[in-house]
Amino acid sequence: VPPPVAQDEEVYSFLTPGIRKTKVEDLANKWDNLGFQIRPVNGYMMYTWQNGRWDMGSFVPAPYVLLHINSGALHYGVSVFEGLKAFACKDGMVRLMNPTMNSARMQQGAAKLRMPRVPTEMFIEGVSEAVRRNAEFVPPYGHSASMYIRPLLFASGHMLGLAPLAEEYSFLVTVMPAGGYFGKAGGEEGVDALVMEDHDRAAPHGTGAVKAAGNYAADLEPVHSAKARGYGTTLYLDAKERRYIEEFSVCNFVGITKDRTFVTPAAGSILSSTTNRMLQQLAKDEGMTVECRPIDFDKEIESFDEVGMVGTAAVVVKVKSITRGDRVYKKTNFDTLSR
Q1: Which residues, 6 or more positions from 142, have their beta carbon under 8 angstroms from its beta carbon?
Q2: Is 258 exposed, middle or buried (0-12, 13-18, 19+ CB in 10 A)?
Q3: What's the burial of 270, exposed, middle or buried (CB within 10 Å: 0-12/13-18/19+)?
Q4: Residue 147: beta bridge partners?
Q5: Which residue segments constitute the domains of the chain, with CATH numbers given?
Protein backbone atom coordinates (compact mmCIF):
# COMPACT_ATOMS: atom_id res chain seq x y z
CA VAL A 1 0.00 0.00 0.00
CA PRO A 2 1.50 3.37 -0.98
CA PRO A 3 2.17 5.80 1.88
CA PRO A 4 -0.52 8.40 2.63
CA VAL A 5 -0.33 11.49 0.46
CA ALA A 6 -0.73 14.96 1.94
CA GLN A 7 -3.75 16.91 0.73
CA ASP A 8 -3.28 20.26 -0.98
CA GLU A 9 -3.63 22.87 1.76
CA GLU A 10 -5.34 25.27 -0.67
CA VAL A 11 -8.25 22.84 -1.01
CA TYR A 12 -9.01 23.25 2.68
CA SER A 13 -7.89 26.84 3.21
CA PHE A 14 -11.44 28.20 2.82
CA LEU A 15 -12.49 26.04 5.77
CA THR A 16 -9.95 27.53 8.15
CA PRO A 17 -10.30 31.33 8.16
CA GLY A 18 -8.34 32.68 11.10
CA ILE A 19 -7.58 29.20 12.44
CA ARG A 20 -4.05 28.88 13.75
CA LYS A 21 -2.53 25.71 15.06
CA THR A 22 -1.20 25.52 18.59
CA LYS A 23 2.37 26.75 18.97
CA VAL A 24 4.50 24.13 20.67
CA GLU A 25 6.56 26.81 22.41
CA ASP A 26 3.37 28.06 24.08
CA LEU A 27 2.96 24.64 25.70
CA ALA A 28 6.47 24.49 27.16
CA ASN A 29 5.33 25.43 30.67
CA LYS A 30 1.89 23.83 30.42
CA TRP A 31 2.58 20.15 29.82
CA ASP A 32 1.32 19.23 33.31
CA ASN A 33 -1.70 21.55 33.13
CA LEU A 34 -3.10 20.99 29.66
CA GLY A 35 -6.57 19.93 30.70
CA PHE A 36 -8.77 17.90 28.39
CA GLN A 37 -9.64 20.18 25.49
CA ILE A 38 -9.28 20.67 21.75
CA ARG A 39 -5.95 22.13 20.67
CA PRO A 40 -5.42 22.71 16.92
CA VAL A 41 -2.56 20.64 15.51
CA ASN A 42 -1.20 20.04 12.00
CA GLY A 43 -4.13 17.97 10.78
CA TYR A 44 -5.67 14.50 10.72
CA MET A 45 -5.61 11.25 8.75
CA MET A 46 -8.56 10.34 6.52
CA TYR A 47 -9.53 7.14 4.71
CA THR A 48 -12.62 6.79 2.51
CA TRP A 49 -14.61 3.62 1.76
CA GLN A 50 -16.38 3.48 -1.61
CA ASN A 51 -17.32 0.68 -4.00
CA GLY A 52 -16.50 -1.97 -1.44
CA ARG A 53 -12.94 -0.91 -0.59
CA TRP A 54 -10.88 1.58 1.40
CA ASP A 55 -8.57 4.04 -0.34
CA MET A 56 -4.89 4.48 0.55
CA GLY A 57 -5.53 7.30 3.00
CA SER A 58 -4.41 10.92 3.08
CA PHE A 59 -3.39 13.63 5.52
CA VAL A 60 -5.76 16.60 5.83
CA PRO A 61 -4.13 19.86 7.05
CA ALA A 62 -7.34 21.28 8.54
CA PRO A 63 -9.61 20.78 11.58
CA TYR A 64 -12.74 20.26 9.46
CA VAL A 65 -14.27 17.62 7.19
CA LEU A 66 -16.34 18.05 4.02
CA LEU A 67 -19.63 16.22 4.57
CA HIS A 68 -22.87 15.67 2.65
CA ILE A 69 -25.77 17.41 4.39
CA ASN A 70 -27.76 14.15 4.34
CA SER A 71 -24.96 11.96 5.65
CA GLY A 72 -25.93 8.91 7.68
CA ALA A 73 -23.82 10.16 10.58
CA LEU A 74 -25.68 13.47 10.85
CA HIS A 75 -29.20 12.08 10.46
CA TYR A 76 -29.07 8.60 11.96
CA GLY A 77 -26.04 8.64 14.25
CA VAL A 78 -24.15 6.03 12.23
CA SER A 79 -20.85 6.65 13.99
CA VAL A 80 -18.43 4.96 16.37
CA PHE A 81 -15.19 6.26 17.80
CA GLU A 82 -12.22 5.17 19.87
CA GLY A 83 -9.84 6.74 22.36
CA LEU A 84 -6.22 5.77 22.92
CA LYS A 85 -2.93 7.45 23.74
CA ALA A 86 0.66 7.85 22.61
CA PHE A 87 3.46 8.43 25.10
CA ALA A 88 6.98 9.80 24.78
CA CYS A 89 9.28 7.29 26.47
CA LYS A 90 12.60 7.63 28.26
CA ASP A 91 14.52 6.19 25.30
CA GLY A 92 13.18 8.91 23.00
CA MET A 93 10.67 6.68 21.25
CA VAL A 94 6.95 7.46 21.03
CA ARG A 95 4.77 4.43 21.73
CA LEU A 96 1.08 3.68 21.29
CA MET A 97 -0.93 2.14 24.13
CA ASN A 98 -2.50 -1.15 22.96
CA PRO A 99 -3.89 -0.06 19.57
CA THR A 100 -4.94 -3.62 18.69
CA MET A 101 -7.50 -3.57 21.53
CA ASN A 102 -9.03 -0.37 20.19
CA SER A 103 -9.01 -1.72 16.65
CA ALA A 104 -10.92 -4.83 17.73
CA ARG A 105 -13.46 -2.74 19.63
CA MET A 106 -14.04 -0.46 16.64
CA GLN A 107 -14.60 -3.52 14.47
CA GLN A 108 -17.27 -4.70 16.91
CA GLY A 109 -18.92 -1.28 16.78
CA ALA A 110 -18.80 -1.23 12.98
CA ALA A 111 -20.56 -4.59 12.83
CA LYS A 112 -23.24 -3.41 15.28
CA LEU A 113 -24.01 -0.31 13.18
CA ARG A 114 -23.62 -2.05 9.79
CA MET A 115 -20.51 -0.16 8.71
CA PRO A 116 -17.49 -1.53 6.81
CA ARG A 117 -14.75 -3.08 8.91
CA VAL A 118 -11.55 -1.07 9.40
CA PRO A 119 -8.72 -3.63 9.07
CA THR A 120 -6.36 -3.71 12.04
CA GLU A 121 -3.38 -2.92 9.81
CA MET A 122 -5.10 0.19 8.43
CA PHE A 123 -6.23 1.26 11.90
CA ILE A 124 -2.67 1.10 13.26
CA GLU A 125 -1.26 2.76 10.12
CA GLY A 126 -3.73 5.64 10.43
CA VAL A 127 -3.06 6.11 14.13
CA SER A 128 0.72 5.92 13.68
CA GLU A 129 0.70 8.35 10.75
CA ALA A 130 -1.49 10.86 12.60
CA VAL A 131 0.92 10.77 15.55
CA ARG A 132 3.98 11.02 13.28
CA ARG A 133 2.65 14.04 11.41
CA ASN A 134 1.87 15.78 14.70
CA ALA A 135 4.91 14.51 16.60
CA GLU A 136 5.89 17.91 17.96
CA PHE A 137 2.69 17.91 20.02
CA VAL A 138 3.48 14.70 21.91
CA PRO A 139 4.13 15.82 25.53
CA PRO A 140 7.76 15.17 26.53
CA TYR A 141 8.71 12.24 28.73
CA GLY A 142 8.35 12.90 32.44
CA HIS A 143 5.12 14.89 32.25
CA SER A 144 1.62 13.76 33.21
CA ALA A 145 0.13 14.59 29.80
CA SER A 146 0.06 12.42 26.69
CA MET A 147 -1.12 12.59 23.10
CA TYR A 148 -4.81 11.68 23.03
CA ILE A 149 -5.86 9.90 19.83
CA ARG A 150 -9.45 9.84 18.57
CA PRO A 151 -10.16 7.44 15.66
CA LEU A 152 -13.64 7.98 14.18
CA LEU A 153 -15.66 5.82 11.77
CA PHE A 154 -18.91 7.17 10.34
CA ALA A 155 -21.34 7.12 7.42
CA SER A 156 -20.21 10.12 5.39
CA GLY A 157 -22.42 9.15 2.45
CA HIS A 158 -26.04 10.25 2.16
CA MET A 159 -28.93 8.23 3.58
CA LEU A 160 -32.66 8.92 3.44
CA GLY A 161 -34.30 6.20 5.46
CA LEU A 162 -32.50 3.19 6.88
CA ALA A 163 -32.26 1.38 3.55
CA PRO A 164 -30.27 1.32 1.44
CA LEU A 165 -27.13 1.82 3.50
CA ALA A 166 -24.74 4.69 2.75
CA GLU A 167 -22.40 4.20 -0.20
CA GLU A 168 -19.53 6.06 1.46
CA TYR A 169 -17.90 5.80 4.88
CA SER A 170 -14.97 7.69 6.39
CA PHE A 171 -12.33 6.68 8.90
CA LEU A 172 -10.53 9.62 10.49
CA VAL A 173 -7.79 9.85 13.11
CA THR A 174 -7.35 13.12 14.97
CA VAL A 175 -4.88 13.78 17.79
CA MET A 176 -4.21 16.41 20.44
CA PRO A 177 -1.98 16.87 23.49
CA ALA A 178 -4.10 16.44 26.60
CA GLY A 179 -4.09 15.97 30.34
CA GLY A 180 -6.54 13.94 32.41
CA TYR A 181 -10.28 14.12 31.69
CA PHE A 182 -11.17 15.21 35.24
CA GLY A 183 -8.27 17.63 35.72
CA LYS A 184 -7.23 18.21 39.34
CA ALA A 185 -10.16 16.12 40.58
CA GLY A 186 -8.55 13.20 38.81
CA GLY A 187 -5.61 13.34 41.20
CA GLU A 188 -5.73 12.87 44.97
CA GLU A 189 -8.84 15.05 45.33
CA GLY A 190 -11.31 12.59 43.83
CA VAL A 191 -14.80 12.95 42.36
CA ASP A 192 -18.31 12.84 43.85
CA ALA A 193 -20.75 10.69 41.86
CA LEU A 194 -24.53 10.81 41.64
CA VAL A 195 -26.61 7.72 40.84
CA MET A 196 -29.09 8.53 38.08
CA GLU A 197 -32.60 7.38 39.00
CA ASP A 198 -34.50 8.91 36.08
CA HIS A 199 -32.08 8.40 33.18
CA ASP A 200 -30.60 5.32 31.52
CA ARG A 201 -27.27 5.10 29.76
CA ALA A 202 -28.13 2.21 27.45
CA ALA A 203 -30.94 -0.25 26.83
CA PRO A 204 -30.55 -4.02 27.27
CA HIS A 205 -29.43 -5.53 23.94
CA GLY A 206 -28.84 -2.02 22.57
CA THR A 207 -25.59 -0.25 21.66
CA GLY A 208 -24.15 0.13 25.17
CA ALA A 209 -21.40 -2.44 24.58
CA VAL A 210 -19.92 -0.49 21.65
CA LYS A 211 -18.50 3.03 21.51
CA ALA A 212 -21.37 4.50 19.51
CA ALA A 213 -21.46 8.29 19.42
CA GLY A 214 -25.12 8.44 20.44
CA ASN A 215 -24.41 6.70 23.73
CA TYR A 216 -22.60 9.81 24.92
CA ALA A 217 -25.24 12.25 23.66
CA ALA A 218 -27.70 10.51 25.98
CA ASP A 219 -25.51 11.43 28.96
CA LEU A 220 -25.24 15.16 28.22
CA GLU A 221 -28.37 16.30 30.05
CA PRO A 222 -27.90 14.01 33.10
CA VAL A 223 -24.22 14.85 33.61
CA HIS A 224 -24.78 18.60 33.30
CA SER A 225 -27.69 18.39 35.73
CA ALA A 226 -25.50 16.45 38.16
CA LYS A 227 -22.69 19.00 37.88
CA ALA A 228 -25.15 21.82 38.55
CA ARG A 229 -25.87 20.07 41.85
CA GLY A 230 -22.17 19.87 42.71
CA TYR A 231 -21.35 16.34 41.55
CA GLY A 232 -18.44 15.52 39.29
CA THR A 233 -20.00 12.64 37.38
CA THR A 234 -22.98 10.32 37.00
CA LEU A 235 -23.32 6.61 37.79
CA TYR A 236 -25.83 4.48 35.92
CA LEU A 237 -27.62 1.35 37.04
CA ASP A 238 -29.09 -1.23 34.67
CA ALA A 239 -32.10 0.05 32.72
CA LYS A 240 -34.24 -3.03 33.35
CA GLU A 241 -34.24 -3.21 37.17
CA ARG A 242 -32.29 -0.14 38.34
CA ARG A 243 -30.45 -2.54 40.59
CA TYR A 244 -27.08 -3.46 39.12
CA ILE A 245 -24.16 -1.10 38.60
CA GLU A 246 -23.29 -0.41 34.98
CA GLU A 247 -20.99 2.54 34.27
CA PHE A 248 -20.02 6.05 35.21
CA SER A 249 -20.62 8.79 32.64
CA VAL A 250 -17.49 8.10 30.56
CA CYS A 251 -15.74 5.41 32.60
CA ASN A 252 -15.99 1.85 33.83
CA PHE A 253 -16.68 1.13 37.51
CA VAL A 254 -14.05 -0.68 39.59
CA GLY A 255 -14.41 -1.57 43.26
CA ILE A 256 -11.76 -2.99 45.59
CA THR A 257 -13.08 -4.96 48.55
CA LYS A 258 -11.46 -5.03 51.98
CA ASP A 259 -9.87 -8.39 51.14
CA ARG A 260 -8.34 -6.82 47.98
CA THR A 261 -10.66 -8.38 45.42
CA PHE A 262 -10.92 -6.42 42.16
CA VAL A 263 -14.61 -6.26 41.15
CA THR A 264 -16.03 -4.75 37.96
CA PRO A 265 -19.46 -5.12 36.31
CA ALA A 266 -20.08 -7.55 33.48
CA ALA A 267 -23.14 -7.03 31.30
CA GLY A 268 -24.05 -6.88 27.66
CA SER A 269 -24.77 -3.14 27.77
CA ILE A 270 -21.42 -2.06 29.26
CA LEU A 271 -18.51 -0.84 27.14
CA SER A 272 -15.43 -3.00 27.62
CA SER A 273 -12.74 -0.51 28.67
CA THR A 274 -9.23 -1.23 27.39
CA THR A 275 -7.85 0.44 30.53
CA ASN A 276 -10.03 -1.77 32.72
CA ARG A 277 -8.78 -4.90 30.96
CA MET A 278 -5.16 -3.88 31.49
CA LEU A 279 -5.84 -3.11 35.17
CA GLN A 280 -7.41 -6.54 35.58
CA GLN A 281 -4.21 -8.11 34.29
CA LEU A 282 -2.07 -6.00 36.62
CA ALA A 283 -4.29 -7.02 39.54
CA LYS A 284 -3.86 -10.69 38.65
CA ASP A 285 -0.10 -10.18 38.39
CA GLU A 286 -0.17 -8.90 41.99
CA GLY A 287 -2.03 -11.99 43.12
CA MET A 288 -5.41 -10.30 43.51
CA THR A 289 -8.68 -12.04 42.73
CA VAL A 290 -10.50 -10.45 39.77
CA GLU A 291 -14.27 -10.75 39.45
CA CYS A 292 -16.27 -9.56 36.43
CA ARG A 293 -19.89 -10.01 37.47
CA PRO A 294 -23.18 -8.24 38.22
CA ILE A 295 -22.86 -5.86 41.20
CA ASP A 296 -26.04 -5.24 43.22
CA PHE A 297 -25.73 -1.58 44.24
CA ASP A 298 -27.76 -1.63 47.47
CA LYS A 299 -26.31 -4.92 48.70
CA GLU A 300 -22.66 -4.39 47.78
CA ILE A 301 -21.71 -0.72 47.58
CA GLU A 302 -20.68 -0.59 51.24
CA SER A 303 -18.43 -3.64 50.81
CA PHE A 304 -15.97 -1.69 48.67
CA ASP A 305 -13.01 -0.14 50.43
CA GLU A 306 -12.11 1.74 47.23
CA VAL A 307 -14.07 2.80 44.16
CA GLY A 308 -12.51 4.11 40.98
CA MET A 309 -13.49 5.33 37.53
CA VAL A 310 -11.23 3.88 34.84
CA GLY A 311 -10.87 4.75 31.17
CA THR A 312 -8.37 5.95 28.59
CA ALA A 313 -9.18 9.66 28.91
CA ALA A 314 -9.64 9.61 32.68
CA VAL A 315 -6.99 6.94 33.45
CA VAL A 316 -7.78 5.91 37.08
CA VAL A 317 -9.79 8.39 39.14
CA LYS A 318 -10.73 8.17 42.80
CA VAL A 319 -14.44 8.26 43.61
CA LYS A 320 -14.72 9.84 47.05
CA SER A 321 -18.49 9.56 47.42
CA ILE A 322 -21.53 8.06 45.71
CA THR A 323 -24.99 9.51 46.37
CA ARG A 324 -28.23 7.66 45.72
CA GLY A 325 -31.31 9.53 46.81
CA ASP A 326 -30.74 10.69 50.40
CA ARG A 327 -27.95 8.18 51.06
CA VAL A 328 -24.29 9.12 50.69
CA TYR A 329 -21.58 6.44 50.61
CA LYS A 330 -18.15 7.86 51.46
CA LYS A 331 -15.02 6.27 50.01
CA THR A 332 -11.80 7.60 51.52
CA ASN A 333 -9.27 4.90 50.64
CA PHE A 334 -7.51 4.69 47.27
CA ASP A 335 -4.28 2.87 48.14
CA THR A 336 -4.62 -0.08 45.76
CA LEU A 337 -5.97 1.71 42.69
CA SER A 338 -3.54 4.62 43.06
CA ARG A 339 -0.64 2.26 42.46
Answers
A1: none
A2: exposed
A3: buried
A4: 86, 177
A5: 5-179 (3.30.470.10), 184-330 (3.20.10.10)
Residue type, 77: G
Split the chain (339 residues) into runs of 10 and give each run's mean pLDDT.
51 56 82 91 97 97 95 98 98 96 98 98 98 96 95 98 94 96 80 96 93 95 97 96 96 97 92 95 97 98 97 94 97 90
Question: Can you tell me the distance from the alpha carbon of 270 to that of 256, in angstroms, rounded to the nearest whole number?
Answer: 19
Asked if 36 and 180 touch (Cβ cutoff 8 Å), the reply is: yes
267-287 residue pLDDT tens: 789 999 999 999 999 999 999
